[in-house]
Amino acid sequence: GEVCNMINKKYNEFLPSMQSAEDLVLQVDGLSSNIDLLKAGIETEVQRDLNVAVAEFSELKQQLERDTLVLSILKKLQEFDTAVKEYNTALLEKKYVAAAQQLEKARSSLKMLESRKGFELKILKALGTELTVQTQNILYHLGEEWQKLAVWKLPPSKESSSLESAMRSELHLRTVPSKEEDIAGPPVASVLQAFAVLGELHTKLKIFGQLLLKYILKPLISYPSLQPFTEEQSDVFILRFTSEGPNLDHSSPMEVFDKMKLIFEVLHKYLLNVPLEQPVEDKKESRVTLAELLGDMIWEELSDCLIQNCLVNSIPTNSSKLEQYIEVIKSTEEFEKALKKMRFLKGDTTDLLKYARNVNSHFANKKCQDVIVAARNLMTSEIHNTVKISPDSSVALPRLPDPGAGDHLKMQNTSKLLHNDVVNLENETKLSQYTFSLPTCRISSSVEQLMELAYQTLLEATASTDQCCIQLFYSVRNIFQLFYDVVPTYHKENLQKLPQLAAIHHNNCMYIAHHLLTLGHQFRYRLTNILCDGAATFVDLVPGFRRLGMECFLAQMRVQKGEILERLSSARNFSNMDDEENYCAANKAIRQVLHQLKRLGKVWQDVLPVNVYCKAMGTLLNTALSEIVTRIAALEDISAEDADRLYSLCRTMVEEGPQVFTPLPEDDKNKKYQEEVPVYVQKWMTFKELMIILQANLQEIVDQWADGKGPLAAEFSAAEVKSLIRALFQNTERRAAALAKIK
């Protein structure tokens, strides 16, 4: 029952609100039709009137715009005209700054006029021309004034710069303005400011700066004897040079800086202490002066010149003078301070000062540079100027400091022989003095000097600051790396063509390798403390140098072997020696080979160490003998006469071959080596056995073979011996019996 009541109640409340909503709809409909009527009215009548009004308005607006434009153009033309008039007045009164400013005003008026689109006036062209003419006019006047203010008196330009031409250069600066100009302020200021207003100052100053560098500043750096000389007359200040004192190579930085300061002070006083713009009340301080502008233009070139031609030369070359360098650094600082005060320089520590302060590193660089240049000159000098070295020769050097002496190293000048004194190794065992000794041979004197340079440099390193010590140590390593790269390339052709040079180069490399074994060792006390993990060693370079020497010499050996085989190839295979022509060819080939070997024996004499000499000559003689054996053993038919002639050719080789062994200049000492030839020539016995076969009968050959245990069997195989028997003997039963025994 209650639910029904609730529904009724809600329904009764709902009905009246439903009613009022319907009324509202009716009202809205009525309003909407009213609006439609109104809209129709507006569209027909009001709109028409409105269009007319807008049209009138925009016409008036355009009229106004046109008038305003014409007015502003007339105004600009008037401004232009006034500016030009005032410019002319100012120019007549020599008020250059004012004149220049008026000209710039006229210029900006003209710019405005030209920027109006759709409004080209014939007159603008004429105005532009007028402006150009007037600008040239004032620049001409200013130029005349500027030339009176700073007058250069220079030698004829054809002359190259020299001390003489510097002596004839003068700069005259005008000091007092003539009376009628007093009004315009100092003429210098007004002329330069007017240039600035017209944007021409840069060009003028640049030319002035270049003249200043060329005729005054740079000569002061290049010619130590030049002294600046100033003279003040009534209205002009003259700056020129006198030449005093000895003509040294380089002047000290202190002197150069003092002379420069004088020049800049004069310029500052009479010419450059001028602000570029007219004073502006609120920013008195920030005005750029002329000095700054000129400084910007010339400082970089001037400072480079000071570094290259003055500071570089003042870097000491030995460590003892480093202390005194403090003076140079101080005077560089003062020079910069003075220039800053005159506003030639802005900002802090320039390259000049950085360079001076970095003296330790420059000292090391200069030292290393000198070392490398010296080394390079030695490497590119002639190889064939030689010196003889022997096991007891050594590099003469100042004595090394005692390892215990710590850092206050007292250098003794007594010369102590370095290497073949007993080398004292870490474990204190004493080695014989010949453990590390070199065989007697010849090396290039340039290489001996190179080694001395390396020792001297390491010695200097041990007495230097840590940084310098490290640099010097590495520059010594660089010397050797450089040798490795430069020498084989630089001397390439000669090393290929000339057997003697190849031998000397081989010795040079072995000599260097020998020294590199112990080089770091003598300096280890000082070097290992600084170089990380005690890398003060050169041992790692040793194998490379040995290889370098070997490869070059082996290449030369290959050339010589090639020539021997080439000569023997013309011997007609040693066949048919009973033919006269064939015999002559073979004989000639053998003579040529002996001649070649003899010549080599001479050029290598006293150059190569004896053992290397004997091995090399032995190898080449062996090449010849081996080739002859191969050719003869390959023959299919050898007549009795052939055999005799072959035997005599072989005898020539055996008799004259050993005589090419002449390792020493003293003949009597060479006998020993000639007797030892069989030791150095592998095929010597083979060759002798072949000669025996050429002369022997069948029985003798069988005896020499001795069931494969005789001397013949040691040199030839059964097949080779059988082949020789078949060539030498006719086919008989005795030959068959002999052949049967060779197996």
UniProtKB/TrEMBL annotation:
Xref: Pfam families: ZW10_C, ZW10_C2, Zw10_middle, Zw10_N
Subcellular location: Chromosome, Centromere, Kinetochore; Cytoplasm, Cytoskeleton, Spindle; Endoplasmic reticulum membrane
Domain Centromere/kinetochore protein zw10 N-terminal: 2-83
InterPro entries per the UniProt record, alphabetical: Zw10/DSL1_C_sf, ZW10_C, ZW10_C_2, Zw10_middle, Zw10_N
Cellular component aspect of the GO annotation: endoplasmic reticulum membrane; nucleus; RZZ complex; spindle
Assembly behavior: Interacts with NBAS and KNTC1/ROD; the interactions are mutually exclusive and indicative for its association in two different vesicle tethering complexes. Component of the RZZ complex composed of KNTC1/ROD, ZW10 and ZWILCH. Component of the NRZ complex composed of NBAS, ZW10 and RINT1/TIP20L; NRZ associates with SNAREs STX18, USE1L, BNIP1/SEC20L and SEC22B (the assembly has been described as syntaxin 18 complex). Interacts directly with RINT1/TIP20L bound to BNIP1/SEC20L. Interacts with C19orf25 and ZWINT. Interacts with ZFYVE1.
UniProt family annotation: Belongs to the ZW10 family.
Protein name as it appears in the record: Centromere/kinetochore protein zw10 homolog
Annotated organism of origin: Cochlearius cochlearius
Primary gene name: Zw10
